[in-house]
Amino acid sequence: MTNDGARACPGAPAQITPGSLDAADEIDRLTAAYPAFRFRCQMIGRHGTRWVAERRIGLHPGLHTVITDDLAELHAALASEKGTGHAR
Predict the structure, then answer these.
(1) Global model pTM greater than 0.90
(2) Under a CB-based contact definition with an 8 Å cutoff, are residues 39 and 31 in contact?
(3) Digits of tens for pLDDT over the chain (88 positions)?
């Protein structure tokens, strides 16, 4: 799932990278929108940098983990019925 307007985690200076202020700001926004999850932007082996969302309480029903390089895909997965994250 891709969205041409979405910011991705990987590489280019204009995009969000781990440790950047933009990544920290985005993580704050994600945490506010989806409080049932914790977020990070991290290098995942040879795949490069990815957004990672993990449910805080793993035994609750719904989505447990999302790993993607597409911020729009992350929002879509968490806001879906199966994700039960429901953005505000």
Answers:
(1) no
(2) yes
(3) 333 334 445 443 345 555 566 788 889 999 999 999 999 988 888 878 899 999 998 777 778 899 998 888 999 999 886 655 555 4
Whole-angstrom Cα distance, residue 10 to residue 67?
Answer: 13
Residue in 76, 5, 15 with CA at minimum distance from that of residue 48: 15
Residues 63, 66: Cα–Cα separation, whole Å:
8
Helix H, strand E, coil C: the string for the chain is CCCCCCCECCCCCCCCCCCCHHHHHHHHHHHHHCCCEEEEEEECHHHCEEEEEEECCCCCCCCCEEEECEHHHHHHHHHCCCCCCCCC
* Paired tokens of 60: 């609750």
